Amino acid sequence: MRLSRSLVPTIKEIPSEAQIASHRLMLRAGLVRQTSAGIYAWLPLGLRVLRNIERIVRQEQDAAGAQEMLMPTVQPAELWRQSGRYEDYGREMLRITDRHDREMLYGPTNEEMITDIMRQSVKSYRELPQILYHIQWKFRDEVRPRFGVMRGREFLMKDAYSFDLDRAGAVVSYRRMMLAYMRTFQRLGLRAIPMVADTGPIGGDLSHEFIVLAPTGESQVFYDAAFDDIDYLGGEFEHGSAENLDRFFSLMTTNYAATDEKHDAATWDRVEPARRREGRGIEVGHIFYFGTKYSKSMGLSVTGADGKPVIPEMGSYGVGVSRLVGAVIEAGHDEAGIIWPDSIAPYRAAILNLKPGDAACDRMCETAYVGLAGDAILDDRPERAGVKFAEADLIGLPWQIIVGPRGAANGAVELKRRATGERVEMPLSKAIRACT
Ligand code: ATP
Ligand code: MG
User: Fold this and answer.
1) How far apart, in whole angstroms, are the C-alpha atoms of residue 151 and residue 39?
2) What is the CATH number of the domain that holds 177?
3) How confident is the model over 313-348, as pLDDT tens digits?
């Protein structure tokens, strides 16, 4: 992206409407713009981050054996009457009437719709288990939308739904999703901890919220430091083997972790004092086993091996994809701006041309831009060096290749790592290699 011809409307001033760092930085770095309360347009840089997060979420869902599909945002009210949730959902649901006076709604979630699709499509026990997911916009008319994309009204969610023949199968699906989540969050450079959440009338221990630690989070959290050291990508845990999943799940549930709602002082007292961690956190995901709640009320059943009807056991699994953009920034920023993890940065590097119009500088910048195959922001604007440095730090790409007339004359540039601030002079070709 050539900055001179791109929509990256950065802001120098601190936006007064934003209360937390991620919201301020998303506005200041030109990632999003609010179009109505709690509703945002994603500008080119913000969209690239959103897409990168989606890609990682998708890869890990696929690896867990879930199948991607896409359900619409607008749903018929009729489906929600069948599950009994139409009235219950209350004013958070955006209700719409079409030209034929049919009641519709903008989906806040998709349990009803997926259950309807499955009841039309699967007939036999041989077709289960299955897990389906989609990444789709949701609308919830939140009382108090705030913190930018963290608590929006329109937001992007990955929601998955599992269908199993019995509870034992549902437990395996649940654990598999939990592992997929831990791998996803680690790849996003986040420390997320699964914390036991309310299961409502179903009971049991099969509901977890995934909490990312950040001082501005909405929940108070307590956890065992053991969670800090686990490598979920290391291959020790695998989706394939039920035994490994078992070991993974017991590790997740024997180490203490709870939000204030579920905090239990007596159990906490038994955690070794040196391992007690306390802080605030952001909920980035939620997984939930709910048995036959929807399959039963909506009439989903398949023929079992013995010819008798079986009512599938279901679970649902949500990740706040757009909220994660905010959460990643809360976890990775400094005074100067955002510090993107390599895995989801909108581009790898910023190329700062400190003297546009200088033949050597222009040439080296073009070489760098081509060398990075366009996976870079080329700051080719006729701005002062100070402005370019400040905006590059604000936007927060992992690397900066700084091209000034003195170095350019000798084929040298400065390579800066955004996270550490370290700057090293080197030949351009070496800088390009370091970034790729
Ligand atoms: P919260 O407790 O934060 O209101 P929830 O429990 O209502 O969330 P779920 O129904 O579990 O949310 O949705 C799954 C995920 O979607 C959440 O873990 C969160 O990451 C994300 N999410 C929920 N509501 C919002 C919102 N208003 N804006 C952005 N993301 C959201
Ligand atoms: Mg929740």
Assistant:
1) 10
2) 3.30.930.10
3) 999 999 999 999 999 999 999 999 999 999 999 999
